[in-house]
Design goal:
The chain is α+β, with helices and mostly antiparallel strands. The protein has a 15-stranded mixed beta sheet that branches. It has two domains: 115 residues, Gcn5-related N-acetyltransferase (GNAT) (Aminopeptidase), CATH 3.40.630.30; 210 residues, Aminopeptidase (3-Layer(aba) Sandwich), CATH 3.40.630. Helix 5 packs across helix 8. Strand 2 and strand 3 form a beta hairpin.
Length: 354
């Protein structure tokens, strides 16, 4: 007899969580690390995660989490509780459609707040075709390869051509950077630690009172969300001595690559072409100095803030070069908010990638 249950995740559940994760290869190594699991699901300042699971003969065989990962959803100058559906995993012998559907539905029905989640190339069909769930928007990727490591599967000829191309490309950026510095009026403050000061609070509050749709973050969230990263960079962007935006970069290794991840960003307005160019050149400079193989970011293509990140000199990365596409699904939200949430500023920090 299979029974589906719910509880708040606790330290007593960590061993069972890891044991289930060990039953199959998972690309996310953190799901087998007790300290990471505790940080992710228990130590969140907004509260412990909801843990939905089912057992067969007292053995844990399936789970899904709804975690208050994104902070709080700001919309129409209101704050809503929001959750990230996370770490769905069912043992191979128990992956009947009925089990998957029951676990997923229970999670949505018994989570008291708005629920966000993405999908992979396999589960997207389950959500859209079988459950008829609405896809609200797509996250698109952008970045820049800085070494030959991302091209390791290609032959020597392709690597040689790319090596010539990237060196010419970076050199022309260096020349344009020197010219652009004469005209761009924004000032970039580079910090090697992440902090929540009065300027950052004012920026977030102004964004809120402007009626933007984004995830509202406070000092406790900053302290918790960026704690796992050892090497970080906090870029504060000023114009006329006023903070008009910030960008948070973290260095992390994924798929044997050292990556500079643009994990979070917030802007009061759309920046000029010259200001965008200056900021992105600063990111390239920091990444090269730290011997990174790639620069990578992800965002909602419908949102105006992400327009300050994508585009030249970064490249949009097609889904064919990535593990899977990133459609976003949203649940437990009134229909009157559908149009606004489709334009939300959604960053990597707002869910559990990297």
């Amino acid at each position: 007899m299979i029974k589906f249950e719910k509880k708040l995740f606790s330290n007593e559940d960590i061993d069972g969580f890891i044991e289930l994760s060990k039953s199959e290869f998972l690309r996310t190594k953190g799901m087998k690390n007790s300290k990471f699991i505790e940080w992710k699901f228990i130590l969140n300042p907004l509260g412990k995660s909801n843990y939905f699971y089912f057992k067969f003969k007292d053995n844990l065989v399936g789970r899904i989490m709804s975690a208050q990962y994104p902070g709080k959803l700001a919309m129409d100058k209101k704050i809503l509780k929001s959750f990230c559906l996370s770490d769905l995993f069912i043992k191979k012998n128990y992956r009947q459609l009925s089990n998957l559907k029951t676990l997923y539905t229970k999670c949505l029905d018994e989570t008291n707040g708005v629920v966000f989640h993405s999908s992979n190339e396999n589960s997207e069909k389950f959500y859209t075709k079988i459950l008829n769930k609405k896809k609200f928007f797509d996250l698109i990727s952008c970045g820049l390869p800085l070494s030959l490591k991302p091209l390791k599967k290609y032959n020597l000829f392709v690597k040689s051509i790319y090596c010539i191309f990237i060196n010419i490309y970076l050199f022309h950026l260096f020349i344009l950077k020197k010219i652009g510095q004469l005209f761009s009026k924004c000032k970039i403050e580079h910090n090697k630690n992440i902090f929540f000061d009065e300027d950052v609070k004012k920026l977030i509050d102004l964004t809120f009172y402007n009626g933007e749709c984004f995830f509202y973050k406070d000092s406790k969230f900053f302290d918790w969300r960026y704690k796992p990263y050892e090497n970080v960079h906090f870029l504060k962007i000023y114009k006329s001595q006023k903070l008009i935006g910030y960008i948070i970069l973290v260095e992390t290794e994924v798929l044997e690559l050292k990556n500079m991840i643009i994990i979070d960003f917030l802007f009061l307005k759309n920046l000029s072409l010259l200001d965008r160019f200056k900021i992105k050149n600063k990111i390239i400079e920091i990444s090269k100095r730290n011997s990174c193989d790639t620069i990578y970011s992800l965002g909602n293509k419908n949102n105006h803030m992400f327009q300050n990140i994508i585009g030249y000199p970064f490249f949009n990365l097609p889904d064919t070069l990535l593990p899977h596409s990133n459609p976003m699904f949203i649940h437990n939200l009134p229909e009157k908010n559908y149009a606004q949430v489709a334009n939300i500023n959604f960053t990597i920090s707002d869910f559990d990638y990297f």
